[in-house]
Amino acid sequence: MRLSTEQAKTLQQAGLSQYRGLTSGKRQIAAIKSSDELTFPRIDNAPQIDKRFAEEFRREYESFTDIFGKLPSLRNVNVGVYNNDNIFGHYNPNSREITLFGIGGKSGKNAISNIALQNKKNGQWSTASPFHSFRHELGHELQEELRLNDPLWYEKIVEVEKVMKWLRNSLTYLDHSAKIELMKNKLSIYAFENA
């Protein structure tokens, strides 16, 4: 459904109220204000993240916010158990929490580094960094911030979709395997498919 600018603004303003006063159980969850407040609570009996690896995540978070600005509503980054389902991260826009899977334990960094390298080689990820999923999920949080607070958000997404359509149409002369190779080398298969 295409919305007018006025309809989009009305929906956007209505959506803001649903994020105020979110609670987890009976306690209020405070938003992460700085990298020092970035903790990694375990869920589903996941092993605790290695302290040095957690510090690397904090530096990665600082780098992200230096470039894109603060994420004033991000509430948590959880550590979950990887379930062999090819899902290494999840963003929940309702709770404003990120969950990263398979990064816990002493072998967490090595495991996710190997996965990242393989996913870059097969074109699913745009980098071979162990922080790839974290960056991706931070991107979802940034996107949610912009969706809620940027009055031109919907117009900007339409423009992004136009560029994506043009890129896809420019590849129609290639056979399927050549298209996949080009997408893998230029960015990632996912990036060509998801605005």
Summarize the topology:
Blueprint: H1 5-17, E1 23-24, E2 27-28, H2 51-68, E3 76-80, E4 89-92, E5 97-101, H3 108-121, H4 132-149, H5 153-169, H6 176-186, H7 189-193
Parallel strand pairs: 3-5
Antiparallel strand pairs: 1-2, 4-5
Give the key terms.
flat; 3-stranded mixed beta sheet; mainly alpha; 49% helix; 195 residues; two-stranded antiparallel ribbon
Structure description:
- This protein is mainly α and 195 residues long.
- It is flat and about 50 Å long.
- Strands 3-5-4 form a three-stranded mixed sheet, with helices on one face. A two-stranded antiparallel sheet has the order 1-2.
- The protein has helices spanning 5-17, 51-68, 108-121, 132-149, 153-169, 176-186, 189-193; strands at residues 23-24, 27-28, 76-80, 89-92, 97-101.
- 49% of the residues lie in helices and 9% in strands.
Main sheet: strands, sense, barrel: 3 strands, mixed
Q: What is the molecular shape? A: flat
User: Quick check: average pLDDT?
Assistant: 84
Total helical segments = 7
Strand order of the largest sheet: 3-5-4
What is the rounded distance between the termini? 16 Å
Write down the secondary-structure element order: HEEHEEEHHHHH
* Gyration radius, rounded: 18 Å
State the helicity in percent bands. 40-55%
Number of strands: 5
Structural class: mainly alpha
Estimated share of beta-strand residues:
5-15%
Low confidence ranges: 15-28
